[in-house]
Design a protein that fits this description.
Keywords: Isomerase. This is dTDP-4-dehydrorhamnose 3,5-epimerase. One of its GO terms (cellular component) is cytosol. It holds the Pfam family dTDP_sugar_isom. It catalyses: dTDP-4-dehydro-6-deoxy-alpha-D-glucose = dTDP-4-dehydro-beta-L-rhamnose. The protein is mainly beta and 183 residues long. It has one domain: Jelly Rolls (Sandwich). The chain is built from 3 helices and 13 strands; from the N terminus they run E-E-E-E-H-E-E-E-E-E-E-E-E-E-H-H. It has helices at residues 33-38, 166-169, 174-182, and strands at 2-5, 13-16, 20-22, 25-27, 48-55, 59-65, 72-78, 80-87, 98-104, 110-113, 117-123, 127-134, 143-145. The strands form 3 sheets. Strands 1-2-10-7-12-5 form a 6-stranded antiparallel sheet. The chain has a 5-stranded antiparallel sheet with strand order 9-8-11-6-13. It has a two-stranded antiparallel sheet with strand order 3-4. Strand 3 and strand 4 form a beta hairpin. It starts with a strand and ends with a helix. The relative contact order is 0.24.
Length: 183
């Protein structure tokens, strides 16, 4: 497994495993505490694992947490997603930087997203399972949502949106969401 910095988002990393494939399929390590530690992260800091299943065109995001924020590891364990990270840390050298990745079951690449960054994704395959590992217990009172189509973000979503949650459909602009997050 190798770790690579994400240039557009300070502190973000891609963790790319080395799959071993044969006639049975493949095997790969999707988490390695030593590799995580090698980029300055505490592998024991991650407290909760979750998974979502989405159909093609489903969009989830853009989400972040207020307060101390939430760092996370994200991986598409089945199918393929278009994954988006936006740096919303005002003191970051990459403030408002954006990074886009296709994460898929073929590569099993994991993306580390630092606290203070917004995250969202769109399913590109008929079924896409996305796994999350977060560094603190989820508190819905700290959820912040930003409009996926905010012109300031100009995210190039690859497919028409087929479905999203009511919360995501009614999400405020980036400017309004940032005001709410400061409260």
């Amino acid at each position: 497994m190798k770790a690579t910095e994400v240039p557009a988002i300070a502190g973000a990393h891609l963790f790319e495993p080395t799959p071993y494939a044969d006639e049975r399929g493949f095997f790969c390590r999707t988490f390695d505490a030593d590799v995580v530690r090698s980029v300055g992260l505490d592998p024991h800091a991650f407290l909760q694992d979750s998974v979502s299943r989405s159909a093609r065109g489903v969009l989830r995001g853009m989400h972040l947490r207020s307060g101390a924020g939430e760092a996370k590891l994200v991986r598409c364990s089945y199918g393929k997603i278009f994954d988006v990270v936006v740096d919303l840390r005002p003191d970051s050298p990459t403030y408002l930087g954006r990074a886009y990745y296709e994460l898929s079951d073929e590569t099993q690449t994991t993306l580390y997203i630092p606290a203070g960054c917004a995250h969202g994704f769109q399913a590109l395959t008929e079924t896409a399972d996305t796994s999350y590992r977060i560094d603190r217990p989820h508190d819905p009172a700290e959820d912040v949502t930003i409009a996926f189509d905010d012109p300031e973000l100009a995210i190039p979503w690859p497919l028409p949106v087929t479905l999203m949650s009511q919360r995501d459909r009614e999400a405020p602009s980036l400017a309004e969401a940032l005001k709410r997050a400061e409260r």
